[in-house]
């Protein structure tokens, strides 16, 4: 099948551009879109307790060594990263009476629910390293089988440039609610039964399973799955699929920008407790700052939907990243005991939180459309699986840089740090994320796939799909 040279295609300004469709025109209603996005609540709610509570409980209550737990989680993360592109590629190739994405999400939901019960409600008599390893194996597999097809489905749910921003905004809002819940519930429990790690783990696990069942039904049946593209499914090896990914420069730019943004956010998250306790001298606010940021983050998704719809995804992403860079630089002017300015900057951080991630996620489906026009093959699921890697690569980069750097500057967790070491902590906490947001901005500064270009790509795809195979 003949394909258009993508670069020439975008640069041809003589083409008459179709008028972009208005947001909401022919799109799912708010209620249906909320139901579709609701699976983000248990998925997002599972990540934080998995890192915070599971290792602690399995070490203290069941006697597994920290080295063993660390090794098992490392293997689990490697498996998780490997499973994403496999699930993405296979879901692209799936053809069934129920659709491409639904069978994967349904099977993944069952696997995710059962493995969550094993992880968060472990029978003491059966807990061994093998038990933890097997539970994590199926947990991560179920997670990938839900998240990757659901993300691809979200990208296919709207064909319009701003419609996709609307879809991912709802996903971001529900994701923020899930994260907020798993931050609030343990905080409340600490006021009633402080130090009860087992009950805390079961409370969070119960929340995940209780929200999984209705959200899975809503996601599967709230909206129809779009028709399968007329192009045949791609059958190729995993390594060939990987080479295809790394040959798409637009996808690499979106992926690199998101990885840098996530790395900056991880620097802030990994140092915020140290900064609040040892630099600011405000131990009572160690968890409260993170919670406050997330509360305002919940309110941020609808705001950034309006901004992205008005000025475009690229411009909204750039605006959000510049704002976050400025907010983090403002932390240089916070001094010990200066709570009012710190609270103001934390609220501002929450309101801009995820702006870049949100817009970049919405760009992935546009890039997949451009790829399908250029190559003739639909790889939407594969593209979203690769984009998911940045959420896992970013924290590794951020933590891997931030913690060794503050240690090199002389800081150690504890009260005995000299003023130079504390200033080093503050500098990394402020400028590390700021630099990451600036780099992310530069990566997408001249991103060519804007609203007009995407409208023309969709017109060409619709014309080609209308021709009988």
Automatic annotation (TrEMBL):
Transmembrane region(s): 31-52, 58-76, 103-121, 127-146, 167-189, 201-221, 250-278, 284-305, 381-408, 428-449
Listed GO MF terms: symporter activity
Alphabetical list of Gene3D superfamilies matching this protein: MFS general substrate transporter like domains
Pfam families: MFS_2 (PF13347)
InterPro entries, per database record: MFS_2, MFS_trans_sf
Entry GO terms, CC: plasma membrane
Alphabetical keyword list: Membrane, Transmembrane, Transmembrane helix
Domain of life of the organism encoding this protein: Bacteria
Signal peptide: none
Family statement: Belongs to the sodium:galactoside symporter (TC 2.A.2) family.
Protein's recorded name: Sodium:melibiose symporter
Originating species: Sphingobium yanoikuyae ATCC 51230
């Amino acid at each position: 099948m003949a394909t258009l040279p993508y670069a020439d295609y975008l640069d041809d300004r003589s083409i008459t551009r179709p008028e972009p469709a208005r947001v909401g025109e022919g799109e799912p209603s708010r209620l249906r879109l909320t139901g579709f996005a609701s699976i983000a609540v248990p998925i997002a709610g599972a990540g934080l307790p998995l890192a915070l509570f599971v290792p602690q409980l399995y070490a203290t209550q069941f006697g597994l060594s920290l080295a063993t737990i660390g090794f098992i989680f490392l293997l689990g993360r490697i498996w998780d990263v490997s499973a994403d592109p496999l699930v993405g590629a296979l879901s692209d190739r799936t053809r069934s009476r129920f659709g491409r994405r639904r069978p994967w999400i349904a099977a993944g939901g069952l696997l995710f629910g059962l493995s969550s019960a094993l992880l968060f409600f472990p029978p003491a008599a059966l807990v061994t390293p093998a038990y933890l390893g097997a539970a994590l194996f199926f947990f991560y597999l179920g997670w990938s089988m839900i998240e990757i097809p659901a993300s691809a489905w979200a990208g296919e749910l709207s064909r319009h440039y701003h419609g996709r921003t609307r879809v991912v905004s709802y996903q971001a809002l529900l994701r923020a609610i899930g994260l907020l819940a798993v931050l609030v519930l343990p905080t409340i429990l600490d006021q009633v039964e402080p130090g009860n790690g087992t009950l805390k783990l079961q409370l969070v696990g119960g929340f995940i399973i209780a929200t999984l069942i209705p959200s899975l039904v809503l996601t599967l049946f709230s909206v129809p799955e779009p028709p399968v593209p007329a192009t045949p499914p791609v059958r190729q090896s995993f390594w060939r699929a990987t080479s295809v990914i790394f040959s798409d420069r637009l996808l690499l730019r979106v992926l690199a920008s998101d990885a840098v943004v996530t790395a900056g956010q991880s620097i802030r998250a990994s140092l915020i407790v140290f900064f609040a306790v040892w630099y600011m001298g405000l131990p009572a606010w160690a968890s409260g700052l993170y919670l406050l940021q997330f509360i305002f983050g919940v309110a941020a998704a609808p705001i950034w939907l309006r901004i992205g719809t008005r000025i475009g995804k690229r411009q909204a992403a750039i605006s959000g990243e510049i704002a976050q860079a400025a907010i983090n630089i403002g932390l240089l002017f916070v001094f010990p005991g200066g709570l009012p300015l710190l609270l103001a900057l934390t609220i501002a951080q929450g309101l801009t939180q995820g702006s870049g991630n949100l817009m970049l996620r919405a760009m992935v489906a546009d890039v997949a459309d451009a790829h399908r026009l250029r190559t003739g093959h639909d790889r939407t699921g594969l593209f979203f699986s690769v984009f998911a890697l940045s959420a896992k690569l970013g924290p590794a980069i951020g933590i891997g840089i931030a913690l060794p750097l503050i240690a090199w500057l002389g800081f150690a967790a504890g009260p005995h740090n000299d003023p130079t070491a504390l200033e080093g902590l503050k500098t990394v906490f402020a400028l590390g994320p700021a630099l990451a947001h600036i780099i992310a901005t530069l990566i997408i500064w001249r991103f060519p796939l804007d609203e007009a270009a995407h409208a023309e790509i969709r017109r060409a795809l619709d014309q080609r799909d209308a021709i009988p195979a």
